[in-house]
Amino acid sequence: MSVEHTQTAPRTALPDTPLDPSGPDPFAWLEDVDGETALTWVRERNAHSAEALGGPAFTETERAVREVLDSDDKMPHVSKVGEHYYNFWQDAEHERGLWRRTTLDSYRTDDPEWEIVLDLDALAEQEGESWVWHGASVLRPTPEQLAAGEPRRHALVDLSPGGSDSDVTREFDLVTKQFVPESDGGFVRAQAKGGLSWVDADTVYVFTDFGEGTMTPSGYPRQVKRWRRGTPLAEATLVYEGTDQDMYISASRSHTPGFERDLVHRALRFYANETYLATNVGTPDQTLTKIDVPDSANVGLHREWMMVRLRDDWALGDTTYRAGSLLVAPFDDFMAGSRDLTVLFEPTPTTSLAGITWTRHHLVLNVLDDVKNLLHVLTPPADGAGSTGEQEWTRSDLSVGGELLTVGVGAVDVVDSDDVWVVTTGYLTPSTLARTTVGTREQATPEVLKSAPSYFEAAGLEVRQQFTESDDGTRVPYFVVGRADRVSGEAGPAPTLLWGYGGFEHAILPGYSGTVGRSWLARGGVYAVANIRGGGEYGPAWHQAALKENRHRAYEDFAAVARDLVARGITVPAQLGMEGRSNGGLLAGNMLTQYPDLFGAIIVGVPLLDMKRYSHLLAGASWMAEYGDPDTDEWEFLQRFSPYHLFDAGREYPPVLFTTSTKDDRVHPGHARKMAALMLAAGKDVTYYENIEGGHGGAANNAQAAHMAATHWTFLWNRLSA
Questions:
Q1: pTM above 0.70, yes or no
Q2: pLDDT digits (tens, 9 = 90+) for 104-119
Q3: Catalytic residue among 48, 668, 696, 712, which?
Q4: Which part of the chain has CATH 3.40.50.1820?
Q5: DSSP-assigned beta bridge partners for residue 89
Q6: Which is the catalytic residue, given 582, 615, 642, 661?
Q7: How does pLDDT run across 308-349, given as a tens digit for each residue?
Q8: Region Disordered: what ranges (predicted)?
Q9: Is residue 697's pLDDT more than 80?
């Protein structure tokens, strides 16, 4: 029996449908995140969800997922800091986590000896706070300190209460393994969105909430200051202040010996940034010089080199550099007025630049070709050559991985080493961590250091990449995983989950998931992932094709993949489910309201749904470059993909599960709450679950993550396997 609304919740009559955006919002009261009336509604819906989904299947799924998350056999990824290799670890005994370290020799063994640096569970119990790890930044000692054998000791640790984006920063001593008290001059930043970054052992840049007027409309810092140890934060020196329309202001220092530079970063909006070279910071002679590249470009520095990654075409003199290209120039020459640039990468119709990684002497390009990784090692002219002649950059290939595997590369120590970490993973291939040296005459065979275990039986399963055509003829790739006879369509239709995102130039690549394997594939389900426009699979053009008034293309692409799965005999609409989170939650909301006949069940996770209000809720204003401004005439196209306003009470919809988190301070939980309430008022089949902790990730620890996963998979299997 379902749990009914109590009298504490407002009695809301079903509004005229579709919802009138110019009229009062009948469910606005659910935007009161911590309001008792809203939370009473949340608790009631959670209780209904628990009753509807609970049972042996739920319990077994939760157990199987928790076993994966808590496994002692998980692969411990590490970061090199001096002579130590640091790792953050969570398991059944340490649900908040351990920050720990070891040596390379010990890490190479099957059972490394770990030294605990910080125990978050003990800290949370001691301080009565549900701390969630947000990372740490360790100051690199000066060459003089390294020569004297001084250890790395200065760290800035970021901790979030409950998993929210807003967090605190506290200085930590890696020698004593204790926080440095504020009373002893330790740097401490109160909870807000922002951060600290090291200048030197006694100075940091601080960008945070300094009080009224110091945060942008998106809820991020508008000011950055230089803060000296032992002085009150109120006395920190202003370095830069953005306008009240900017998105995010910050600053950083490069600590590479001989190339120390201070940079101020001004995010005007998504995809528009300014970077300034700062000299004499904090003095009357302070100077900020803008690096003169297009605002839509990303600029990066490594030793004497400046890299520019273009999102748009750049006409410079008689030359036009294409969007998606990577350019390089000696930084000092560029700042002195030279515009002699070398093209290191230019996209083709099937290729895009997925990432770049510098080592001490080399640059590794990670290229996607039809959503498959290729690695190239580029070597610049000798130090001090001062030339960017293209013929002086040598190129070789780095052969790792395999067909339909994702390959990631990261520098082990960008200052002193040419070693890189190489991580490979695939839908049926557990992750492997290897280490190799790039730039050698003959490529060394990567040393495999760690391999993740298999969490499900992959024998008989297969991965295929398929392509289909969208409404406008665009070729759209997708991956499909499952039993060989099912991904071929020979065995007939099967319960299938189609996953997608399609936004913010984010490419979705193959990756191993014990959770998907145990909860879905092992049951005989098929798993598919769509690489739709709005993402970054084919570079900035693929992303820009679905911005603002063209958002419908992302949804048309996804619908085309759904139809293709049916056409290939893999599934039928009644057995096809889809899931999306965050921007993917907006995708899911549009599949629900615009393409309900294609699906048998839909999961809408931490979503945007009310596109009339989104820019006024939490970080929403920062996404107007992606979606548009609903307070202008852009609402004309925004309303065409605002699920909250597209819902029609007279239309049939597939069963839907909404999930969100009370602590999500990025995408407001009001989106999911209001849409669920609207559909419930119309008598639709709605399941709702809101985690009280968890932030935008939805869960603050493994127990919560397992419960959330069991909710998702049980809902899908119940709806699609009947």
A1: yes
A2: 999 999 999 999 999 9
A3: 696
A4: 1-69+599-722, 455-571
A5: 98
A6: 582
A7: 999 999 999 999 999 999 999 999 999 999 999 999 999 999
A8: 1-26
A9: no
